[in-house]
Predict the 3D structure of the following.
Amino acid sequence: MNSTWLHEKKNRKHMIETRRDVFQAIADPVRREIIGIMVHQELTPGDVAEQFNLSRQAVSKHIQILTECGLLKVQIHGRNYFYSIQPEKLSEVYDWLDPLKDIWEARFSQLDQLLKKEKDKKQKTILKINSTKKL
Amino acid sequence: MISTSGKTILSKDLENKRLLIQRDFKAPIETVWKHWTSSDLLDLWWAPKPWKANTISHVFKEGGKWIYFMEGPNGEKHYALFEYHEIAPNNFFIGQDSFCDEDGNLISIAPSMHWNVSFKSAEFGTRVEVVISFQHESDIEKIIEMGFETGFAMAHDNLDEILI
């Protein structure tokens, strides 16, 4: 019985270790937002909690997961823990061009829509002119 | 008619510290040019939703500037400035893109980028080529990081679909 329990405990520990990969880290929307904020600055868990209106406990959990998978690095200054992003790790998930590509794609599809609107408008004007001519 | 919605080609040329972006649009050069060079039109498409571009001032002539900010869904504001160095109507414009504060003062820690945006006739309309050059290789990483917030905010929904 005891050995089964030990075995299970060992198994569970193994599971926890393997589940900490970068994909799991960014699967959660809150963690993605935390990453988004942290690319600009080092933050303490208190700062994060404030920005997201989350409990310290919830933030600790997210930060722990992000740290375990290597996305965040901690630096301790006195009593404060400052976390910062490890960009190399992030590039395991993304080709670093991907976010940029998303931005340009979104931009361009908006421009496509505008150009189409303009074309429709022109066509309508031509139709109007033609129908006036016929009259 | 077959719809030929453009495909965005984005490539990096790290050796020459350049990013290249190419895209075809189904409209005549003059129309596409107008959309790239009038601030009231740029405001409508330059920022990827849910972000919004807002022009503060725009002088489209050599030596002139476009000062604008990108406004995020949570009220974040990123100010930027584009200075026009050379303009050849319906052909190309060249300039410098920088991050600035709300008064248009450059932020020195952020890298500036040199842009060359050119317009050519293509089979179905207009081909736009954007070449963004950086001074240092590390500048590219900085730009990616700064763009990351925007990209991430946008990509949320897509990511959810991929990951869950």
